[in-house]
């Protein structure tokens, strides 16, 4: 079907007659069925999916109909494929149902499919496909509009039944679990473990079949909206200068500064459990005027709070934040065990790590407060495997060589 006659999502309006819309599928539910209120003993079937045709615009599509029609639709396409939605009904959003059961979209409308009038086809136009495919990798939310896992843990009760955005890395992926409900419906679920700089492990459950299949393609510890890129220190700094948004990457680098033998107040700090503002344990409430829990009794966390320099042959990224629980995992000491060491033992521990090459997972953010202009947060840090280092360094050298050749 010709995609040149399609209407942009941004231009959709209920006044259009026989509209056609092309987009890449970025989300899709499982087929669901409900008893038909008008026909006793008969089920109605439904399927919802979301399509995107530009970096800024995407819209929800919902179909209702018979078993054959809806399951036929479901088998027509998968997440990541480009489709043409032919003759849907363009209608306003239902605020209650839209926000509860479907992703929040940038369009003012939603598309409804009817068995009698609407069809969905795979797009066959290669130019259109080439234009749409990159959109699957663009986040649909502002890069600053998300909760850290620490925020969720601290505010769990108040967030109950709230739809939120999360930015985190995948720590591990479990095996799919299959089950049958009390009314004999088949189901499945998959549990992922996430982590970030505030929480070492946090469960995320996936229920829809295609979401599970998509999750199984992720690479543990190397995926935070794609944390698979390996950088040298100079490349990290250059990307931070070119990119005002937070990004993630891997570095094979040496620890060139690690002040474990400084005063204990520079190694271990107490922070508000809600907003992470530095406090003292004898305070009655958080001193941060913006803290959501400022009027409540102070709840604190105490942990390692280090600034670490990472270096390689191209330069140094200074003052990267290394906090618990990541610091405890790297050092092999709990706070209690560390504070029991004398000065000499703390110095010896420092030299155990200095000038060793590590595989470091970093989150890089722009920072106007630091002279370097960037802030690094350590998400994970472990001794690097020499063979892995050689493989990635060879790749970087080939990349640099090809750039100079070009």
Q: What's the total count of β strands?
A: 18
Write the element-wise H/E pattern from the N-terminal end onward: EEEEHEEHEEHHEEEEHHEEEEHHHEEH
- Tally of separate helices: 10
Q: Give start-end ranges of low-pLDDT stretches.
A: 222-226
Strand content: 25-35%
> Overall pLDDT, averaged?
83
Radius of gyration (CA) equals 26 Å
Overall geometric form:
elongated
Distance, first to last CA: 40 Å
- Which percent range fits the helix content? 10-25%
Please state the structural category.
alpha+beta
The main pleated sheet reads as:
8 strands, mixed
Keywords:
alpha+beta, eight-stranded mixed β-sheet, six-stranded antiparallel β-sheet
Layout: helices, strands, pairs:
Blueprint: E1 20-28, E2 32-35, E3 43-52, E4 58-65, H1 67-74, E5 82-86, E6 89-92, H2 95-101, E7 109-114, E8 119-122, H3 126-132, H4 149-154, E9 169-173, E10 177-180, E11 186-195, E12 202-206, H5 209-215, H6 233-242, E13 247-258, E14 268-272, E15 300-312, E16 315-323, H7 326-331, H8 335-339, H9 343-353, E17 357-366, E18 374-383, H10 386-405
Parallel strand pairs: 4-7
Antiparallel strand pairs: 1-3, 1-5, 2-3, 3-4, 5-8, 6-7, 9-11, 10-11, 11-12, 13-15, 13-17, 14-15, 15-16, 17-18
